Amino acid sequence: MKRILPIILASGCGLLALLDYLIASPGIDAIGGALSEGVIILAAFALILGVLNLASVHGRRLAAQGERRVLSGLLLVALVGTLALGVVPGPGQALAWIFNYLYMPLQATLTALLAFFLMIAVYRAFRLKNSDAAILLGVSLFLFLAQLPLSGAISPYLPALGEWLLAVPVTAGMRGLLLGVALGTMVTALRVLLAIDQPFRGE
Amino acid sequence: MIVCPACGHHNAEGRTRCEICGASLEHFLYRVCPACGALNAADRTFCLRCLTNLLQAEEEDIAQGQAIAGGPTAPPPPAESAPPVEAPLPPAQAPSSSLPATWEETLSALSDLLPAGAAQALAGRKGAPPPPMPSEEERAEAALFQRVAKEGTTGRVPPISPAPSAVPDILAKGRVLFALLLIAAALVPLWFAPWGEGRLAPTSGARTWLEALGPHDAVLVVFAYSPAYAGELQPLAEAFLHTLAERSVRSIAIASQPAGVGLAKEAYRAVEEAVPAYAYGERYAILGYLPGQEAGLNALLRGLEQTFARDALLQRPTAELPALQGLSQVAAFQGILILSDEDTPVRQWVEQVHSRTGLPLIAGVAARAAPLLAPYQHAGQLRYLVAGPSGLIEMTPGQVDRRLVARANGLVIYFAIWCAVAVVSNILYWRERRREG
C-alpha cells in the first residue's frame, strides 16, 4: 500500500489534468482547476519553505559560532529587515530603495561577470587548432559583427546576412530541437502516467 | 562506497538505496578512490587515474572506521604466525618508499590500527591469495586517463591511434554528412524563396499593432525577466508601456518571476512620469506574482479575479479596480505582451494560453532568446518578436535614449576586446607550436 498509493495518486492527478485539456466537462474542469490552484499554493509555499530553511541553516551556523558566523548574521539581518520593510503598510519607499539600489545592481553585477567568463572561453576555444575551431571562430565573429550597430555602416548586406543566418539555419536547428523536446516530453509524461518512472519516489 | 547521484551522499557498500534521500543506487555504483578522489565504476579493482587498489583501500577504510568507533584497541595478534606472501604491490605504488612493500606488511601495518575483533577477522584472511595485479588494459586506460587529465590548454596532445571500429565507414564520416545536410538546409529555402524573404518579420509590426489600439482596449503585460537582465529589458518594457500610455490603452501587469513585481513598478513609475494621465488603478494595475508556471497559467485562464484576489500595490480587491472592469477573463484582452529574458516563459504562454484563446502574443525578449523563439514566430504562434538593441530602436523611433547609446558603445568596445583576445590567443598558440617544432 505504501508503494501503490503514491502511484495511484500521481497517475490519477496526471490523468485528470490531461483530461481537463482534452474534454470540456464541468466536473473535470472543476477538478482540473482545483489541481492547478493546488500547484500554485504548493509553489508559493515552497518559496516560504525555502526562506525558513535558509533562516534555519544560517541560524544554526550563527549559534555554532562557526567561521562564517558574521556572514550568516548579515544574511539573517538582511532577510528579517527586508521582510519587515515589505510587510509594513505604506508607500514602500525603503523597499523600493533596496530593490533599485541593492538588489538590481547586485544581480546585474553577477550577470556582468559572464562577460569575463566569455573572454576566458574565447581565449581557450578560438585557437585555430583544426577546421572545427576555424568554423566556430568565423561564425562567432560574423554574428557578433552583424549585431553591432555599426555593421550597417560597414556593409548594408551584413545585418541582412546575420538575420538570414538566424532565420534559416539557426531556426532549422532550433525547430528540430524543439520537436525532439516535445517528443521527449510526451514520452516522459507517458512514463510517469504509466508509473514506469516514479520521480516522486526518487526512482 | 557508493556516491548517490541525486544528493551526493556517500553510502556504505551493498546499499541499493541512498541512506539520505532514498534514490535508487542500482545503476549508479561508483567507487571513490581514497588516494586521488577519482570516481571509478563499481566493478573496477584499480583506480582509473592512479591505479590504487580500490578493494584494498576500502577494506582499510572500513577497518580504520571500526578502529575509531571501537574505542581503545586490544593488542594485535602476532604477525609472525602468518605465512609470508611475496606479492609486490602494483607498479604505480611501488616507487613510494613510505608504503609497505608486500601484502603481508600491509596487513601487519593495518592490524596495528584495528580493535581485537576486526584484527582477528583480518588476520584470518592473511592466507588469502594476494590481490590481483592491474591488467595491461587497465594500465593503458589509466595512462590515457592521466594524459587527458593533465592535458594543458596550450600543449599538443600526441595522436592516439584509434581502436578498430565496427561502424561502417559511411557512418564514421557522419560529421561530413551532417555538414552537408546543414548546408543543404540553409540553401533549400533560397530555392523556394528569394533572398530576404525568409528573414524575421520586421519588429516595427509590433509598434504598428500597438499604435492601432485605443482607450477601450486592454493588454495583459507579463514581466518574466530577472533584475539581471533589467539593463537590457527595462528600456524595452518602458518603450512598450509608453506606447500604450500615449494611447491610454489599459494595461494589466503580472509577474512570473518573484522580482517581476518590483520591475513592473519601476517601469510604470517611469511611464507615469512621462504620461501623468496614465494613473494606477484607472488605466493600469499590477496584480502580482503568479507562481506555478504552466499550472499557474492554467489557473489564470479560469479567471483573473480568482487567481489574484487583490492587486499588488494598493491591496484593493481586483474587482473594484476601474482598470480591470470587464477584464475578468484573459480572453477579454486584445493581446498579451510578454517581456522575458529567456525562451521558456514565452513558450509556456504559447502552449498554455495562445493555443486556447488565440490571443495575439507579442514577445519582447533579450537578444539571446530571439533565435530560440524564431520557430514560433514563423509558425504564427508569436505575432511579433522584438529583441535586442534593434528591437529597442524600432520601438523608440526618433528618440535618442542615452542607455541605448551607452549599450551600443559598450557592445563595440566588447567586440574590440573580444577580437583582441582571440588574436592574442592564436599568436601565443602558434608561437608555442613553432617552439615545439
Task: Write a brief caption for the model.
The complex is a heterodimer of chains A (203) and B (437). Chain A is an all-alpha fold and 203 residues long. Chain A has helices spanning 4-22, 26-63, 69-87, 93-125, 131-147, 151-154, 157-193.
Total helical segments of chain B? 15
User: Describe the biggest sheet of chain A?
Assistant: none
* Strand coverage percent of chain A: under 5%
Number of strands of chain B: 10
> Biggest interface pair, residues each?
A-B, 55 and 62 residues
**Which geometry of chain A do the CA atoms define?**
extended
List low-confidence stretches of chain A. Answer: none
What is the number of beta strands of chain A?
Answer: 0
Strand numbers in spatial order across the main sheet of chain B: 7-6-5-8-9-10
Biggest β-sheet of chain B: count, sense, barrel? 6 strands, parallel
| Proportion of helical residues of chain A | over 70%
Give a written overview of the molecule.
The complex is a heterodimer of chains A (203) and B (437). With 203 residues, chain A is an all-alpha fold. Chain A has a domain at 1-88. Chain A has helices at 4-22, 26-63, 69-87, 93-125, 131-147, 151-154, 157-193. Chain B is of the alpha/beta class and 437 residues long. In chain B, strands 7-6-5-8-9-10 form a 6-stranded parallel beta sheet, with helices on both faces. A two-stranded antiparallel sheet of chain B has the order 1-2. The chains are: A mainly alpha (203), B alpha/beta (437).
